């Protein structure tokens, strides 16, 4: 019993630690409500016998749609996942390693983190006033333009992440 309690406490502390450190600057609550925070996927209450508990760090499935509003060319859709409360760029890295038809590059901004520079070989270019915009179509159908980049956005399950090659006129 004592062993179980200690394990539970450590798990809880771990989850709290992950929560605190996974957010980006300020943590506006953006992306919350994903998996309901505590409890989800954890092995709490698992005494013995039936072992159907989900892994502690479960997967949050997302889709990634690459689209071009400048040329109106065809879109490409991919599927990947982020870890529990994981950041978008983690899912992008996972996808890039698994699927060689998806590639991306980014630059590191000292204040805001990773700036998405190219997707599938197509680069945004400041002098041509083009860039990759990040939008998200939520599971309920609403499309939002996150006020953070790929290093800070925490996807919800079944988010459709949209990378839209576009020109500045569309900046929020
Ligand atoms: C202009 C601008 C842009 C331009 C920058 C290009 C250019 N040459 O002008 C464009 C249109 C490309 C842009 C895009 C985005 N932006 Co912007 N942008 C700004 C704005 C209005 C001014 C920045 C500026 O010129 N500062 C003055 C110069 C001298 O300082 P600087 O440090 O060199 O500025 C650079 C950085 O700000 C960088 N930058 C701009 N936006 C972003 C966003 C991210 C995530 C990163 C890493 C870097 C970055 O580009 C600037 C020029 O090199 C700021 C708001 C503000 N008032 O600061 C928002 C701002 C920085 N952007 C923001 C956001 C969210 C985005 C997008 C993620 C929006 C989206 N959902 O698509 C995208 C980036 C997507 C990607 N590809 O990664 C947020 C960042 C907040 C955060 N904590 O992450 C800000 C603060 C606005 C907001 N909504 O609150 N942006
Ligand atoms: C951006 O566009 C300008 C003007 O068309 C061009 O001269 C420059 O080489 C481009 N830069 C990159 C990195 O593609
Ligand atoms: C969808 O969910 C978002 C965030 O939870 C909310 O702001 C928006 O109003 C919802 N849209 C609809 C159509 O329910």
UniProtKB/TrEMBL annotation:
Residues 31-50 are annotated as: Disordered. It holds the Pfam family DUF4430. The keyword Signal applies. One of its GO terms (cellular component) is extracellular space. PANTHER family: TRANSCOBALAMIN II, TRANSCOBALAMIN-1/GASTRIC INTRINSIC FACTOR. GO terms for biological process: cobalamin transport. This is Transcobalamin-like C-terminal domain-containing protein. Residues 106-166 form the Transcobalamin-like C-terminal domain. GO terms for molecular function: cobalamin binding. Keywords: Signal. The keyword Metal-binding does not apply. Residues 31-46 have a biased composition (Gly residues). It comes from the Eukaryota. Residues 1-23 form the signal peptide.
